[in-house]
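pasting for ref
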Amino acid sequence: MLAPEARGGKPVAIVAISVTPIGTGSPSVGEYVADALRVIERSGLRYRLNAMHTEIEGELEQVLDLVPAIHRACFARGAKRVSTVIKIDDRRDAPSSLEAKVRSVEERLRRP
């Protein structure tokens, strides 16, 4: 399969984002996570929720544009502070997807 640029498409980045609302008055943050996911869902980008972060797949600029909206959602729910950790895999030499990265490692695990 050709890289996205070779197919005439835009490069796809995979971004792991973990947003922690602080000053909420409770150790539970599930409602904040749900609000953040609503922001991501409205974007139309592919994503996968994990126990510790959310992975988003899309053009890097599109994904990064979500961060301020996610922060606004957390503040609107009542957070006094928001801490965010972002990890970016912006590969340009080959196509990439959430599933392909996992499949690649799983295939290596099956090798003798």
